[in-house]
Design brief:
By secondary structure, the chain is an alpha/beta fold. It has twelve helices and ten strands. A seven-stranded mixed beta sheet has the order 3-2-1-4-8-6-9, with helices on both faces. The protein has a three-stranded mixed beta sheet with strand order 5-10-7.
């Protein structure tokens, strides 16, 4: 009935797998748990090998780093069941009813079900504040709000999806990179896939340092630019792309590009500080996007 699929890169997953396994046993369904070591080093491969002590649980190994999208497709191709529960390695279910809540949502008729993200309330070290604040502000969104625009907050790190639908969407993503959740949302909308959001969160544990996360945000903006240039995004609910398109139509993108050129280092200083501003992050992202579009 259910294939739980976890791509991992140099991350210990035994605690996550054990928590999932215990819930799956209580649910009393046919299941499997597959973990793909996506170019992980031998220490983590050996550490995670213990997951195979659990029944119906396998460790798959890729000697090269495939990237998140390709790794998920390999897991999909290896799965035996029609419902796929994708989880990132650095998460942990918030509730002991996590698996059962997903199972209860299946009869409601959607083909993709998103449980959502949450973060511990205790502030992390100052070097990690940007990722934590962004997650708490933009990703920790209740289901009734997410369902108002179901293709907007798409977090594939906690998603139950039909195998056929995932293969359809994944086949359209041809490159390796960061920021493809935005494209997933656009493809789900374009293909009229019925999406449901529920309050069935996982804690996001593996948050990056602020400077690393800011680089990933830049990469995500570049991904959006390339997808737009290639006319890959037909329909979407992405706020950043909508703002960029509007600025370009009004020919204000030249002015906003200057903001990045003149104040980029100053904005970055705030974003990597102990008290980063999410408002400044939004200014940084849109000005960076305008700058990169004009200076490829």
């Amino acid at each position: 009935m259910l294939s739980v699929l976890i791509p991992t890169y140099n991350y210990a997953v035994l605690e996550l797998v054990e928590a999932l396994y215990n819930q799956l046993k209580v649910a009393d369904i046919d299941f499997e748990i597959l973990c793909l070591e996506d170019g992980s080093n031998n220490d983590f491969i050996e550490k995670n090998r213990a997951i195979e002590n659990f029944k119906n649980t396998r460790q798959l190994i890729s000697n090269t780093n495939l990237g998140r999208t390709k790794a998920r497709q390999v897991l999909c191709d290896s799965a035996n069941y029609d419902w796929l529960l994708f989880l990132d390695a650095d998460v942990m279910p918030k509730k002991s009813s996590f698996i059962q809540q997903y199972l209860d949502a299946i009869p409601l008729g959607s083909e993709a079900i998103y449980g959502g993200f949450t973060y511990h309330k205790t502030k992390p070290h100052k070097d990690y504040m940007l990722r934590w604040k962004y997650g708490r502000t933009n990703e920790e969104v209740k289901a009734h709000i997410r369902n108002q625009k179901p293709y907007k907050v798409i977090i594939s790190a906690n998603c139950l999806i039909k195998k056929r639908v995932f293969s359809l969407i994944s086949s359209k993503i041809e490159t390796k990179g960061y920021g493809f959740d935005n494209y997933y949302g656009a493809l789900l909308k374009e293909n009229s896939i019925k999406v449901l959001h529920i309050d069935n969160e996982v804690y996001h544990l593996g948050i990056e340092k602020s400077n690393i996360y800011l680089t990933k945000k830049e990469q995500a903006a570049e991904t959006l630019l390339q997808l737009t240039k290639d006319n890959k995004i037909v329909k979407h609910d992405n706020s950043l792309l909508a703002t960029f398109t509007k600025l370009k139509k009004l020919r204000l993108n030249y002015l906003i590009s200057l903001v990045f050129q003149m104040f980029g280092p100053l904005l970055k200083r705030n974003l990597t500080s102990k008290n980063p501003s999410i408002f400044i992050l939004q200014i940084y992202r849109i000005s960076y996007m305008c700058y990169k579009e004009l200076n490829p």
